[in-house]
């Protein structure tokens, strides 16, 4: 069954909890389970990613979920990058993806002088954290030095060793210090021993959860989002196939969870779904290409200006139509909108509603400024 571009975007944005029809909830754990995690090298961006997918979520609820309830966890997972995931998804994701990225980084580890240090280094990290509890990167490097494992703190060797320990299921990120510096903790101390799903192989679960959160999408999209090789992505789809429906996107085979086939509802006339997505948002990172979601070439260049950054986007009915940023003009904080096409009055009203909600979430007075396209 071929799908129109508009229907693909509607189905994807509904799966990503970016529409009024989604029935959004305020639980960080539930949001993260629904979308199978958020990229989180910037916690400020991850927080805004949870905000845009929920209704009235306070920023304090994310801190509580991370540091007190520990129902969500921050560690290295998809693509070998930092993600926020539900704690009860950690076991199967880590068991499946950890070995892929731990093995795939050996060349860089050797360049950093870790080839002979990584085995004793990970073991030492486990022992140190068991003795001390949470430590910052520099505190951990200092204690490693005392045990004869010397890492140059001016290089990337320390973070690569810490990342390896995370991928091997030893540690995750813990509570930030008062100055905002992250700490590292033993996973078993922080959230207990992660469990894996008993009802399905992890590889099949990866495909099922991906197409539930990102479908309709292709097997190439699954490989790009997860970081697994194409051979594993194909095997994952084969395992999950009983739960999937096959269709076509621009002539390419694509998949969607069968239970979502009848859930597509267009936005109400005159009431478009307007969302201000943060940097590195998973809606834009979840596919091999962004031709459907960012169809305007100048906007593509604006949102991807180099350095590995994906900038915040204004999205209307699943399609990016502009960029946005937080800025200070004089003594006033602003949400600055840079549209790349003419905005209707309904879209402008949606932008104002999103700006007010960002203001509420950040507990910061914000004005909205729209820089009209020339």
What does this structure look like?
The chain is an alpha+beta fold. It has two domains: 1-266, no CATH class; 274-370, no CATH class. The chain has helices at 5-15, 28-35, 43-52, 59-68, 90-104, 106-111, 118-132, 137-146, 157-167, 187-191, 202-214, 219-226, 230-240, 282-285, 297-303, 345-362; strands at residues 2-3, 38-39, 72-76, 82-86, 171-173, 184-186, 244-249, 252-257, 274-277, 313-316, 319-329, 332-339, 367-370. The strands form four sheets. The protein has a five-stranded mixed β-sheet, with helices on both faces. Helix 7 (118-132) packs across helix 9 (157-167), helix 11 (202-214) packs across helix 13 (230-240) and helix 12 crosses helix 13. The longest helix has 18 residues, at 345-362. The mean pLDDT is 92.
